[in-house]
Amino acid sequence: MIKGKKRLLYEDLAVDEYWIVDVQNVRIIAFAVASGGSERITVSQVLPGLAISQLSNFPTRRSAAAYPSNESRASLCLVD
Predict the structure, then answer these.
(1) In what order do the strands lie in the sheet with 17-22?
(2) Which of 1, 36, 46, 79 sits CB 3.0–4.6 Å from 5 for a disulfide?
(3) Taking the model in full, what pTM does it have?
């Protein structure tokens, strides 16, 4: 699905909020669904107090060799 089709699906399902993760440009764009459409937001309405701009400070991906053996790692899986 392309972004436009997903946006329409989220609006039809009355999803409160959705984020687009742009891995090539290392940014996150967030939208809230309201009044039958989407509007761009800068602060999450689902996660109170979370400024979307804070997410741009998230560390970039490192190779597995860069992690000490006892360091925790988390993964983000992007599914289309």
Answers:
(1) 17-22, 27-34, 37-41
(2) 1
(3) 0.63
